[in-house]
Amino acid sequence: MATASKSAKRRYEIVENKGNSEDVDDIIEAQVSDNADDSTDEESSEYSGLEDDEEDDSGDEEDESAWEEASDEDEEDDDEEQDMSTNEDSEDDSEDKVAPTAVPIEQVESSTTAEEPAKPVEDEYAYDSSDEEDLRNTVGNIPMNWYDEYPHIGYDLEGKPILKPKRGDEIDNFLRKMENPESWRTVYDPQTGQDVVLSNEDVELIKNVMGSRIPDGSYNPYEPWVDWFTNEVMETPVTGRPEHKRSFIPSRIEAMKVGRMVHAIKMGWMKPRVPKDTSVERHKYYLMWNADDKSEDVRRIENPIPAPKPRLPGHAESYNPPPEYAFSDREIAQWNRLADTPYQRKFPFVPKRFSSLRAVPAYDRFARERFVRCLDLYLCPRAKKMRLTIQPEDLVPQLPKPRDLQPFPTVCSMIFKGHKGLVRTISHDPSGQFLISGSDDQTLKVWEVATGRCFKTFEVKGTVRCVSWCPNSAIALVAAAVDNNVYLINPGVGDRLVQAKTDEILKEMPAQTDYLIPQRVRAVLTWNEPDKEQWASGFRVILTHFKAVKHVAWHSKGDYFSSVMPEGDNRSVLIHQLSRRRSQLPFSKSKGLVQCTLFHPLRPYLFVATQRHVRVYNLLKQELTKKLITGAKWISSLAVHPGGDNVLVGTHDRRLCWFDLDLSTKPYQALRHHGQGIRAVAFHKRYPLFASGSDDCSAIVSHGMVYNDLLKNPTIVPLKKLRGHDKFDDFGVFDVLFHPTQPWLFTSGADGTIRLYT
Amino acid sequence: MGPMKKKYEAGEATKYITRAQALKKLQLNLKDFRRLCILKGVYPREPNNRKKAQKGKLDKKTLYYVKDIRFLSHEPLIWKFRDFKVFMRKMKTAMEKGDKETVARLKENKPSMKLDHLVKERYPTFMDALNDLDDCLTLCFFYSTLPRDTKVPANLISLCRRLTVEFLHYVIAAKALRKVFISVKGIYYQVEIKGQPVTMLINHQRGFKPTSASDVDYRIMTNFVDFYTSMLGFINFRLYHSINLQYPPKLPGITVKEDATDEDAVEEYNELVAALNSSLVTNVPQAEEEIQIDEFPSAEGAEKLEEAKREAEAIERLKSLFKGLKFFISREVPRESVVFVIRSCDGEVSWDPSIFAGATYDETDESITHQIVDRPSVDKQYLSRYYIQPQWLFDCINFRRLLPVEDYFIGANLPPHISPFVTERLGDYIPPERQMLLALQRGETLPAEQEEEEEEEEDESEDDSSDEEEEEGKIEKKEPTKSQVVKEKKGMKVMRGRVEMPDVKGMEEEDKEHYKFRELMIRNKDKRLYRSMMKNRRNREREAKRLENKRKQHEKEEKSLKKSTSSGKALTAKWSIQPLSATSDTQTKKMKMM
């Protein structure tokens, strides 16, 4: 059947080509023969097998040849041509016919197959093919390299070796190859040692395998489909059963449903589906807010916090930034170094200058930055934060100008030189005319303030820890703490009458008739009279203690004075009465290392400074009234305001604490002016001034006004830093002292000088 | 005494809820919760005391207000989410069964969300909405430039495009553009709407670079854009309404039916709208009003009033900055941004019709005054127009006046482009270009121009200048002699009292010491704050100094470079542009007058 259709096609083509062809008769002949072939084909194909197919092919050949002769002249090897065409698809055939110019090319190919022997299919038993195989390969399927060294391969029936054909040398081979047109399809067979020329089928097979097609060229994958199970109604059905009745009767339930629907449609309940209006999409917006600012009542989230606006760009982000913003090589290197920690970079991009707008590339982090912003918007916790709009200057308290708070000492106007060691302590006489100083060079020197002259020098045996001039102007007396002793010295300066009177008072010990020195006091201290030599040099009374005395302080009346022995435990503080030459130990328990003591200027109170605290004792009631907590580690010095309600405490840890006794037991103000520990503090008797001296070689004068009004807190203004002393052995200023009447400050230093600032 | 109070049952602890608890309470999964939070604008809160708010737990948790979560639970959108979940389930079953009819029916009835009520709820007043417009615009502009093949739905992209174009049309019509800035990230535009500054960033249109999923999650951003599109739509409607424009925008003279089936026509029409080159149809013919600032006599506010007046004048000037100028855009220039900038300052503009629809005149038009070019050279130049680089437009808008075109000619080395958004604090570094701008704002004349003129004069006649200098020197010499004469005449008997100069140095030192003492007197609780503030200030000062030095160094290098290259070159360069400026000398003069 297939061939029939093929032939029909051909016929059509031939008819088309009529105009070209000259021998019309020939064509007609061919047609006739073709037709005859067809008829036989139709009959035979149904019953015959392969052989008929071959016949059919041969018929085809004839047909082809006829046409070939008609259309193209000079065709010689018709048979070969037909061989090829049989192997090819019918489509190829038709192509050939439509474009006869393609034929010569094919011809070349076909000519190559000319020498090929006829197909073995033609006559299977013409010769014994199996024998032939054996003849060639007598050794079987063995590795052929076993015969590499021999001139033969295997043996024939007679036992004679079958010689390998001569291979010749390379040049011969090459020449043979050049001469032989079949060389491209000649293959060496190692099994027999022969050269084998591949047949056309073999080549086709190889081509098919390489093109991953079905190897068998004759197999047609697109054969017409034979419809075995047709959908056409057969004339005689498989079953003769008549249809059931219910297939003819309409469903009652469906009828009811339809009835209901019809009713619904009639009543207008059911409407056809309206197709969706797409234009709504474009007009879905309307006027949502009628006014700009007025809001209608809508529920909102609690206490909404608007998101902060994105940061606006700076100059560096410009595509053409000012040259100072573009990164230098160093900055680029730094930028690259932070690749692992990109958040530390100053910018997420490298500021760079582009010569023109078109040169600017896309910003590759754009999407990422938008995404991060979105994350921030919905994921970042929000809180309202107060933003400071103040300048740092606003935090600095406004203080009155020092110029408005004059007078206060500003310039160093006098230097008292003479001591050879550290000047640990200084004191002035009640009038302020004289000054006494005690030094490590084991001397006490009396100076006149106005001239700066040293009036007198007292030699003592030991370092002078503390000197204190008796505040009573009726007597001229200085208490000096030297090692274990406290000397009461008549300095021998000032009013002669007063000097004489003092000597007179101290000449004789008052009678101790009904007084028995308590055992406790006797163990600690003895009142000694100086010998004649000492009397002549000015010593009037000597109090010998059992430990080194560090501090001496007079009561404002000038009769009582206290001495402090830090190592004396519970017996470290002693209060002496000069007029009766009696002493007492006020404390029975030790509260720590006592640093210094002071008398309240007006009331019978005693301030005792231990390392950490200052305790205020009422001497009359004999009880503790207050304990001032400084918060410092080591108190060095103490001063009481002449009013008596304010106390200044200097500490070795650089703090200067101002206590207001009426206010609290904690410092009213703590100042840290000094770079190093404070050694001494002092109040001025008349002016609202106080001073502190420190190891950093400076003294600071401050304004400290105390008001009578209880509601008004004292004002404290640091005024001036006074420098001048030199550093010696890590010590700077040892003592500070105000002149009793003038706004002058004396400082004594480790460099052996005393300075007067006015 | 009542029953003992338990810890964390009152106060701060009851105000907050963790995210896991919130999920449980709302019965949503994390994805839906996230979406809901994004749409409703609910965000975590930072508690005053985290330990109390977390009921004593120390690890950091995301905390929400309990009231916010309760508010979320009443949201009808949650039901929409559930509907959608059901819909997806049904779809899946139908798809797997291959039930095409059901799939089609389901698709027809796909549940959709309306977010109108959310817009109203989040922004009860229009001003609130404007206040939050920055992010909305930037993201919508970004989405409008995305390619269709990203994971973002295509109709969302086209919606974004439409809405952003509408917004740009509003800005053009209202002349609301105030500041522009070309940065490496994109172009910033600041627009003033109802007195509120709105800043948007539009990325450079350079093609889309795909990002990895770990970098950018487009699903989250799409949730935002869903909300932003409806918000921007309503804002656009309101804005168009406020200046009597028809919404959706209509071009005059062209009528296209909205529901027309011809998609090509609609597309073409949309492109014409997107060209931004023609004004839109108004509802009512507009009557322009001149707003006069009423003068209220106030003693201390006089200066402020003056400043406000100057500002208003400058803005008026900015609104019609390019009036009467005719621009033509070359094809390599970013069309949309340039057209937007020109049109919002009242200029006329056109381009090569092959780039985009909507061109109004040709390159050959003789009345074109400026051609915007961004290439090193142009083959055929017209004498009647300036060929300038696009930065000129942007700088003009920031300076609020027409700048001299000479610096911006083709191939010229452009002057730096500085940010108009910077507000300097005390001690910050201000680049010289910015200083010039600030001086202009204060109402001073252009110092650069004067300098240039001076330089020119110097160049022209070096000999003259030396003469002048000599003359100046003479005058200076003369002055003291005059005063001497006067002294001699008067100082016969009574010597004039000498003014004792105060010891300035000493005073300064004193003040310094005083300030140091004052610093010491800072209260303890302020001390740390003061120190950190001073540290910041010092850092800023250091940075400013660094930049200043860098600039100086740069200028020095420039100078040495200039010296090394012969001065003849500079002259020839000037000559090359001479013909252009010569033809339009009068124009430049006019501009200077303006």
From TrEMBL, chain A:
InterPro entries: BOP1/Erb1, BOP1_N_dom, WD40/YVTN_repeat-like_dom_sf, WD40_repeat_CS, WD40_repeat_dom_sf, WD40_rpt. It comes from the Eukaryota. One of its GO terms (biological process) is maturation of LSU-rRNA from tricistronic rRNA transcript (SSU-rRNA, 5.8S rRNA, LSU-rRNA). One of its GO terms (cellular component) is PeBoW complex. WD repeats lie at residues 416-457, 733-758. Residues 35-95, 123-134 have a biased composition (Acidic residues). Residues 10-21 have a biased composition (Basic and acidic residues). Its main location: nucleus. The keyword rRNA processing applies. Belongs to the WD repeat BOP1/ERB1 family. This is Ribosome biogenesis protein BOP1 homolog. The lineage of its organism: Eukaryota, Metazoa, Ecdysozoa, Arthropoda, Crustacea.
TrEMBL record, chain B:
Residues 474-514 have a biased composition (Basic and acidic residues). GO terms for molecular function: ribonucleoprotein complex binding; RNA binding. Residues 444-514, 526-594 are annotated as: Disordered. Residues 317-410 form the BRCT domain. Residues 530-539 have a biased composition (Basic residues). GO terms for biological process: maturation of 5.8S rRNA from tricistronic rRNA transcript (SSU-rRNA, 5.8S rRNA, LSU-rRNA); maturation of LSU-rRNA from tricistronic rRNA transcript (SSU-rRNA, 5.8S rRNA, LSU-rRNA). SMART domains: BRCT. One of its GO terms (cellular component) is PeBoW complex. InterPro entries: BRCT_dom, BRCT_dom_sf, PES. Its main location: nucleus. It holds the Pfam family BRCT_2. It is found in: Nucleus, Nucleolus; Nucleus, Nucleoplasm. Belongs to the pescadillo family. Required for maturation of ribosomal RNAs and formation of the large ribosomal subunit. HAMAP family: Pescadillo. This is Pescadillo homolog. It comes from Daphnia sinensis. The lineage of its organism: Eukaryota, Metazoa, Ecdysozoa, Arthropoda, Crustacea.
